[in-house]
Amino acid sequence: MLKKLLSDSVIYTLSQALFQGLPILILPLLLHSLTPQEYGIYELFAVGMVLITLMIPLEVNQGFAREYVEKKTDQEKASLSSSCLWYTGISYSIFLFTVPLWHYLLITLGVDVLFGDVLLVAVAATTFGVFLVFQNQLRWDLRALNYLVTSVIYVLITMLLSALGLIVFKLGWQSFFVGQIVGAVVASLVGYVMSYNLYRFTLDSLSIKKMLAFSIPLVPSSIFVWSNAFMDRFLVQEFLGPEKVGVYGASYRIAMTTSFLLVGLRGALTPILYRRIDHQDTPKDLELIFRWILLFSLTTISFFFLYSQELLSLFGPETYLQAWPTLGALSLSCILSRLYIFAPGMDIQKRTKLIALISFFSFMTNFFCNLLLIPRFGIIGAALATVVSSIVLLSSYMAFSQRLFFIPYAWRRYFYTTALFCTLIVADFLVKNSGQPSTMVLSVIKAFAIGIFAYFGLQILKVKNTVGTKEAILMKNLGN
Q1: What distance in Å separates the CA atoms of residue 207 and residue 81, rounded to the nearest whole number?
Q2: How many structural domains is the chain composed of?
Q3: What is d(CA 348, CA 279) in angstroms, rounded to the nearest whole number?
Q4: 126: which of 92, 94, 245, 456 fits an S-S bond (Cβ 3.0–4.6 Å)?
Q5: Phi and psi angles of residue 433, each rounded to the nearest 5 degrees, phi first
């Protein structure tokens, strides 16, 4: 398990660093080409596109994943894959015919938006949603390299056309969605060729029912998760205006880079875990992996707290520097909200309704915290609200998952290590509020401090000792 996980994690991390990091890669270009208000408009449309890809296909890709690992013959796999693709295509086709209705609804709600812009985002969401089907197929066939190839194609085309649109043709924020459409179409064609033997003119109603039976209860959960991640943007728009959305959204996009490793790890871990649920060493393996991830996460979060001003200055003009107090908190939230991969009990036991309930509870926490904190503290309040809801989400996942699939986590060691890094973050916050200017010497001291704290965190977690005694056994027994 560990050998396969390590090799695939590297590939999936690279894929996701490109794939989900695309907004980060073009962020400097967007921030220097658009005003904060224009970037705020782009941010709201980008958030809306994510919601479309969650709602329209009813999360059928998750149902496909759960069913696909249980298929034994090539014929069964082909029937399931084909049904998933055709269902997704039909769902998005119906959605496109309803775009005028959605435009009218937005106008009725007082959102001043052109029909062409709504149609552009809808087409981008459709092509991207179909592309996800092909990527999902490669992922669950454990073809990580092919997955990487399609990600690179999608990202390169999107970036190239977005840059041309912004710099040469002056199309504004619409350039990004045009690039996404072309990139998704080309990458989908490549993905189809890679798995063409699995796709036929087959639409098996029984397969669709099984997939939807698993995935539909996850739709509310996904919407609540989406709301936890993006609701703050809409509430900032409501209370503070589009310019603050742009400033806050830029900080969030930078903070998202902290979660690349976890996204890549999830891409590799989940398929392997489903195949090794009954192996007696799987819980211990997960705990070992979690120790490394915890140490990496705490080090990364500390870096974003300590270098928040420098990072914002690197990505954008001085206008966005006002968001520095939010960057560390948002990086913490991004990581906490993705650590649920180490609480797999509910997925393993197919307790999707419980997942939806937890997501709803976290959503309500986020909603009320935003309502309470944004009017008082502005975008800092929005960042704090996301941290609180992420803690609620992860704590709930862990509490219920441990009852369904126990993992021997060393909670006391995790607490001591976290407290250690918190002292570093608090000390840096006090220095910043004292008016101490950022200098090269101070930056070097920060880097040295992070390294020292990471070393002591390593000792507390005893990762070295764990690896020394277990790694040989894991590589030998779990490498297949």
Answers
A1: 9
A2: 1
A3: 13
A4: 92
A5: -75, -15
Q: Token digits for 142?
A: 């454990």
Per-residue pLDDT tens for 23-56? 677 788 888 888 888 888 888 888 888 889 888 9
Picking from 221, 228, 222, the residue whose alpha carbon sits closest to that of residue 366 is 228
pTM, rounded to two decimals: 0.72
Structure confidence at residue 41 (pLDDT): 81
8 Å CB contact between 55 and 21: no
User: Sorting pLDDT into bands at 50, 70 and 90, what band is 476?
Assistant: very low
**Domain with 289 in it:** 2-477
What are 289-332's pLDDT values in tens digits? 889 889 999 999 999 999 998 999 888 888 888 899 999 999 99
Stretch 397-407: mean pLDDT: 91
- Nearest-angstrom CA–CA distance, 391 and 168: 44
Assess whether pLDDT exceeds 60 at residue 392.
Answer: yes
* Tokens 């796999």 found at: 77
Rounded to an integer, what distance in angstroms lies between the CA atom of residue 456 and that of residue 413?
12
Contacts of 373 (CB under 8 A, 6+ apart): 380, 381, 382, 384, 385
Quick one: how many helices (H) and strands (E) in the chain?
A: 23, 0
Helix/strand/coil percent split, the chain, to 5: 85, 0, 15
**Rounded to an integer, what distance in angstroms lies between the CA atom of residue 259 and that of residue 265?**
10
* Residue 334, both tokens: 């991004």
Tokens of 119: 């149609």
**What mean pLDDT is reported for the chain?**
84
3-state secondary structure of 151: helix
d(CA 349, CA 352): 9
Q: Is the pLDDT of residue 466 over 50?
A: no
Q: 213-255 pLDDT, tens per residue? A: 888 877 877 777 777 777 888 899 889 888 898 899 889 988 9
SS3 113: coil
Tokens at 111, concatenated: 């959102």
Indicate the residue type of 40.
G
Q: Which residues contact 120 (CB under 8 A, 6 or more apart)?
A: 174, 177, 178, 181
